[in-house]
Amino acid sequence: MTASGSFQDNFLVSVLGRLKDQSALSVGLVIFTFLLFTVDSIWGGKLSNAFSLYPGAIFHLELNRLSFYLLYHKDIIHWTLNVVGLFTPLSIFEKQHGTVYTGITLNLLTVTAGVQFSLISALLGSSTHVIGLSGVVFSFLSYFAYKEHQYKPILYTYQFQGRTVNIPTLYSPFIVLAICAIILPSSSILGHLAGVSSGYLLALDYLKILYPPSWILQSIESKLAPAISLLDGIVTYYKEVDSVNTRNVSYTPLFFTDPESEVVSAQTSATPFTGEGNVLGTA
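The chain above was modelled as a monomer; its predicted structure follows.
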């Protein structure tokens, strides 16, 4: 009994120790969406039906659907795939831009993709309803693909029938989208395309005008300081006062940080590869 209790205590300490290094919003989103999934399952899908996004929702000004459809999932596999795909890029973005700023970004990407899906699917006469985080997953994939392609323009190169084929980093999200469509044929290709489009808009700073000034975010955080302080030691909260300076500097590539290695990579990428395949960088 004592040994079992000791094991449980050590396990809990280990989990909490790892958790405190994780980003607050990223962890919170995983927990919150799981709780919503649980409640929705108990209620027979009433919540997901009420907030699912459908073609033409924008014409009926159903703003709740445009903002909250990403929070619901049809089953545990759907939820698991989405949170696994989103957690790492969302955490990286949160560390670079701040917790509140990332929350606003998440909402902007959701609404931007939702508007595109609602408009285009209505014009195409579709009747598909969509829910889930997958659109935002593709948004962050395309965001980082755009940022990274400036430092690593070629993601992968291989030989095919005696010819060298290069896969551009910039367009890599479309490859993931195609694979997803094959493996998960019930997924919404249009919804994923809307997510990809929104990510590129974010990377190109076209959504920047929609963000509130930093001083407003700092004011909100100062008023919520007592509540935010409760997160200390549990997860990492990135304050706006610190993040406003880090996100205004030039982008730091995730996979290539040595400028000299970039020059070497650029010079050697044109050399034909004679093996089966050559990964130029980890993605």
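The mean pLDDT is 86.
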